[in-house]
Amino acid sequence: MNGSGAEPLLTVEHVTKSFGGVQAMRDGSFDLKRGEVVAIVGGNGAGKSTLAKIVSGAHVPDSGRICIKGVEVSRADHSVSHMQACGIEVVYQDLALVPNMTAPYNLFLGRIPRKWGLFVDEKKMRKKTREVLEQLNVTTVQDLSQPISSMSGGQQQSIAIGRAIAWGSDIVILDEPTAALGPNETAEVERLVEDVRDQHGTSFILISHNLDQVRRLADRIIVTHHGVTSREFKRDEITSDRLVKAITLGE
Ligand SMILES: Nc1ncnc2c1ncn2[C@@H]1O[C@H](COP(=O)(O)OP(=O)(O)OP(=O)(O)O)[C@@H](O)[C@H]1O
C-alpha cells in the first residue's frame, strides 16, 4: 500500500518556526497519505526535528497551516495531546521507555488500567501486550515479567512502535528509529514498519540520516535545507547522487 491517489491524511502548508533569532523552519510543506512512508532528510540543523515536532504538537508553528483528515488544527488547539487525539504518535530516538519497568507497563505508560479504580489490572495489561506483539508478529519477546532493559535494542524499539500503534494512531513519527541499533535489529525494525503499514494502513514519517534505510522504506522523500522543504522525490526517482546533492545544496 502506498496511498497513491488517496486524499491526504495530513497536510502541512508553509509552516514556520523561530527560536529567538534562529529560524529553524522557514517554509515547511508536505503531505502524507494513508499507508504511506514519507522520509524527511537533510543535513544537521536543516530543520527535520523542528518540522516533526510541529506535526507532533510539541512546537506550535509561528505561521502556516496543518490539516488532519481535511480539518485545520487551530493554533489554540495545537498541542501534543490534541495531535495524539487526532491519531499522531511519536517514537523518539531515545524511545522514551522506562528501562526498569516491564513491557506491559511501558505499553500502558500514562494509561494504566485499574480495577475498581484502585488496583492495577496487570492481567489486562499482559493480555493487551501479547495481542499487540502478536499483531506486530514480534515472537521473540517471551517473558513479559522482565524489565524492558533486559531486552535487545530491537525488541525495545518494537515495544515503542507497538505502543505508538496500540492506541489506534494513524500516523507514527519515527525519529532516527535505528540510530542506536545493529544491523540485525535494524532489519527487525524495518520489517515491523513495513508490516504495520501493510496490515494496519498506518502512515509513517521517518526522520533518518541513514539514506540506505530511507531508500528501502520511503515511498517519498522530503529534503529539508536551511529550514525549507526544498525538494521532494518519489521512490522511483531517487538516486544516491540526486539525494546527496539535494541534501547538501538544496537543489
Ligand atoms: N528549542 C530550540 N531552541 C533554539 N534553537 C533551536 C531549538 N530547536 C532547534 N533549534 C535550532 O533550529 C535549527 C534546526 O534544528 P533541528 O533540530 O530542527 O534540525 P535537524 O535537521 O533535526 O538537525 P539534526 O539532524 O542535527 O538533528 C538548528 O539551528 C537548531 O540549533
Automatic annotation (TrEMBL):
Protein name as catalogued: Monosaccharide ABC transporter ATP-binding protein (CUT2 family)
Pfam family, one: ABC_tran
GO function terms (MF aspect): ATP binding; ATP hydrolysis activity
Domain ABC transporter: 10-251
Domain of life per record: Bacteria
Keyword Lyase set for record: no
SMART domains: AAA (SM00382)
Record keywords, A-Z: ATP-binding, Nucleotide-binding
